[in-house]
Amino acid sequence: MATVRYVSVEDKGDGVALLTLDNPPLNLNTLTTLDRLLDACGRLAGDRTVRALVVTGAGDKAFCAGSDITEFAAVREDVVSRKLARENAAFTAIERLPFPVIGALNGATLGGGAEIALTCDIRIMDETARIGFPEVRLGVFAGAGGIFRLPRIVGPARAYELLYSGDLITAAEAERIGLVNRLAAKGKALPDALECARRIARGPALSLAIIKAGVRDSLDQTTDQAIQRTLEDSHRVFTGPDIDEGVAAFFGKRPAVFTALRPIPSPGPDGDR
């Protein structure tokens, strides 16, 4: 019997890393998965050579079909500390990685798997897959980010409908409502996501990190706060390592080749800035 790895990370070259939810066939979230996700995100965040990450599921049946319900009995009396706090921490660690994250939704994306998908910046979905938040059918709700990340992406009205009903929707419907960015032909979600990541990874690491954090944090900022943040970040890029190459490439009528590593994060709540 093959060893279950739960989470695996692979260097794909050109500044691209691949994180695989590796518990086939359904790649269910287990308590072990959460611990390994946290560990993997910590290592990835500290690797300055990574400029983009693709997240996918092992096999071709599921990206992640949600939580392993067989663990519910063991955690029910202390579900917050034993499961949900760890789940929220692990999923938020993906969201706060200091570089672009592309989700390759290569199969069923359900419950906690859909919540992982929400933490990705870009979602590319197999045209044959389905996505949804069926937790309500078990008498619970999407308690690891779905209840607040989903409305930020699709708006409150659509979020209410998906969360209240627990209905699964097709990839085409997910694209129509803006839940996923685009569809891939059957079996092509991962190669399409890797190509997207390679294209993005050719960009300047500092600007990519700033865009990532700036867009995310703007959701919790006033306009004045966002302007001040933009001015501070603009100073960083205009005095940073990439602008000379960008300007030289522009006047030289050639593609820019950005080689500077991602900056070392500063300590504190904005450590990915």
Automatic annotation (TrEMBL):
Name the PROSITE patterns for this protein: ENOYL_COA_HYDRATASE
SUPFAM superfamilies the record matches: ClpP/crotonase
What CDD domains does this protein's entry cite? crotonase-like
Q: Which family does it belong to?
A: Belongs to the enoyl-CoA hydratase/isomerase family.
Please state what the protein is called.
Enoyl-CoA hydratase/isomerase family protein
Species of provenance: Paracoccus pacificus
